[in-house]
Design goal:
By secondary structure, the protein is an alpha/beta fold. The chain contains 16 helices and 13 strands. Strands 1-4-5-13 form a four-stranded mixed sheet, with helices on both faces. A four-stranded antiparallel sheet has the order 6-9-11-7, with helices on both faces. Helix 12 crosses helix 13. The structure holds uracil (URA).
Amino acid sequence: MTTYRIVQRKRDGQELAPDELAHFLHAYAEGRIGDDQMAAFLMAVFFRGLSPAELATMVDVMLHSGAVVDLTDVAGIKVDKHSTGGVGDKVSLVLAPLVASLGVPVPMMSGRALGHSGGTVDKLESIPGFRTDLSLDEYCRQMERIGCALIAQTDQIAPLDRRLYALRDATATVESVPLIASSIMSKKLAEGIDALVLDVKVGNGAFIPEPTRAEQLARTMIEIGERYGKTVVALLTAMDRPLGIAAGNALEVEEAILALRGGGPTDLRAITLALAAEMLVLGGAAPSLEAGRSAAAAALDDGRALEKMREIIEAQGGDARVLDDTTLLPRAPVRRPVSAKESGIIQAMDVRAIGAAAVELGAGRGALRAGIDSAVGFHIPAKPGHRVQAGDVIATVFARNDAGARRAGEAVCGAITIGETIESEPLPLVLRRITPA
Ligand code: URA
């Protein structure tokens, strides 16, 4: 069957046989078809979904598009975390060194900015010199030596996800349960984990905003993990407001450093501790979630997590002095305060619009192979439920130039609804915990 016909059949809602789908995906991986047919296929999946059998094939082909890393030489139960993405989500930058500092190895392969959401890889690359493109050998050696590595999808590990991820980012095909599930699980299964904790975001800033569909996404990924013998636990967490205060690559690294020093915004710390507790229990380093949470809080407060981050940054070629002096991170030349236009209570935040404004500023990519600006973004201390007076500063824009700062300021202002009363309660930080059946 021709690849054209395969796209056509998917478009028309027919189920593809495993060999047809595998043939199509291999043809793309091997360069026999281009981005044009793959983009059309992704859009067809966006609208038609994938059957359980198609999803299983997709995960398997993506997983085996590169090496499946064997980390059996690394002592301990290897546990990673992955988030489905949101605005201001810098948790990985704190969580990975934190959990590794407590003796649980964390092999972490992350993504770049996707749609309106930021990406851990782009954030890490705002640290001068930091390399996320470790070779397979460097990755394994670093895992053996310091128990944590923070890398991007490479040509060697999950290369098909790397290409599909970038293509989805440029073709508005991110918000699909099977595409997100196959993307996340293929790279997580390839990186050498034994267990995984998922942070599945819910709310208007999430790719899958509704709690019931987010739960479906979580269960789909848990089932994929089970098929490959991995224990997967998911927390559904709030993304009806940005996480923490900073949104934008270097700004988020700065905020993550504050958290690694035992400070930072309380919501960032709370989510990090909840996820750390899960990872420590799965990794056999804590007998209960409560014990895991206390151990993690202690490691943030006494500097062990920060020192582990220093080891990671040094191992990956970065300038670890940023941990002591955050002015070494890229800085945007223009800062513009954004003031509330009226007095009242913050009723809601359009998180997706805030993320899109950050992309527009240059913090994310609008097109395949576009570059990003590490320095730009926002500080948004305002949260739903806060009372403000007209003229109060509710955000600060960090931009390359005045025109960009003005546009972004208007976008943020428009994304924050102020009214007389609280219309609906903000989501709890952690909505639900989902475990294998
Ligand atoms: N994170 C990923 O790795 N892939 C997605 O599709 C969404 C979030």
